[in-house]
Amino acid sequence: MSHASWIERRQRLLAQMQAQGGGVAIIPTAREFIRNNDNCFPFRHDSYFYYLSGFTEPEALLVLVASAGQQRSILFCREKNPEREIWDGYRYGPAAAQQAYGFDAAYAIAELDAQMPELLADAPTLFYCSGADSELDGRLQAWLHSVRGKARSGVTVPDTTVNILALLDEMRLFKDDGEIALMQKAASISGVAHARAMRAARHCKFEYELEAELLHEFRRQGAQSPAYPAIVAGGANACVLHYGANHAQIKDGELVLIDAGCEFDSYASDITRTFPVNGQFSQPQKTLYELVLAAQNAALECARPGARYMDGHNAAVRVLTEGMLETGLLDKNKVGTLEEAIAASAYRQFYMHGTGHWIGLDVHDVGRYRETEKVGAEKPHRQLQPGMAITVEPGIYVRPAEGVPPEFWNIGIRIEDDIVITPDGHLNLSRDTPKTVAEIEAEMRGTINK
Ligand code: GLY
Ligand code: MN
Ligand code: MN
Questions:
Q1: Residues 147 and 165 in one domain
Q2: Which helix (H) or strand (E) holds 109?
């Protein structure tokens, strides 16, 4: 992504701050967490901070100042440190970071306590997310206390605090072309990884072997990490929605559900495919697979501008419930007609999660799902608009139970794609990942070089 994108986002945020009377925004990156001694857990920058800065080093913080006379972006970051750079690698240091990332000023992070009271003095509004980082909250209190100490000289502290995340969430919800290109790259790599796992399945005995195929492909193609812990769930494990152990044997005759996506240049992908370990769907597996696929297609038809966020879920639920009645998963004598079964949420025995979520810098990305105003008793779900990115991921999970046809027991299926809403409908970023029964069985007839 070009630095112009980050500068443009800062300008847009500053304009919104100005429109609210001006003030100072404080946006920190993520903390480093020590695992033990001098070993940290892998560092991942904060997505809000990155969205506005493009800067990936730890120990950094962004300050935006919007006042009538001037709008400024200021970075605080680590100083150059030749000794640490021998051990840990290059650090920009303030001067180079200011130049490279287009900030108006940059200072050493060690200067934060000295600089912030001056920056906060006379700011009408503080744009900040309190309650997310108690250490920073505490330091902010000290900075404000220091400003109050100068009250007799006429200096004032901000008298309003605005939750800056509400502004940033709405900005992040609409992806620009650069973001969509990165999300496409992430989804394309993940799609190849899923196909690789399909081809490898017949030679693998354990779920973790399939996970290794995915991780290998992610890294081989330059993705920095998985966007979330991979789910590789054989047989009954697929009915555990957040299964993550990935240590069980996979068995001939069973399905395996893989929910895995890489992060590429900070953007997530999130793809699920379900396939038979031996390369061929049995009849009961195929019946339920085709049902979930039909539900996904119904939901995908609602992925267009003007449709409401929940329309896709409702469409999937209708198709799934109809299929559950046809296959005998739901007993007509107990749950009644299709409309009655939907109204009573009878499908929840076999489909107990939503049909998607926003996706972007984070796999479960930020953004409001509902309008801000109530209509009747509740706030309606918001309408989809071009640039929004969602997953569409219906599933069916059949745990053994009395009255449930045994041929379906322990089958768990989910199909998940990553979608960007376009002016005409949508773009399916994961469109090249084998998905129909025919595509999956054909992919699995191929082999990878072992
Ligand atoms: N992989 C997490 C999800 O599908 O929401
Ligand atoms: Mn997923
Ligand atoms: Mn998902």
A1: yes
A2: none
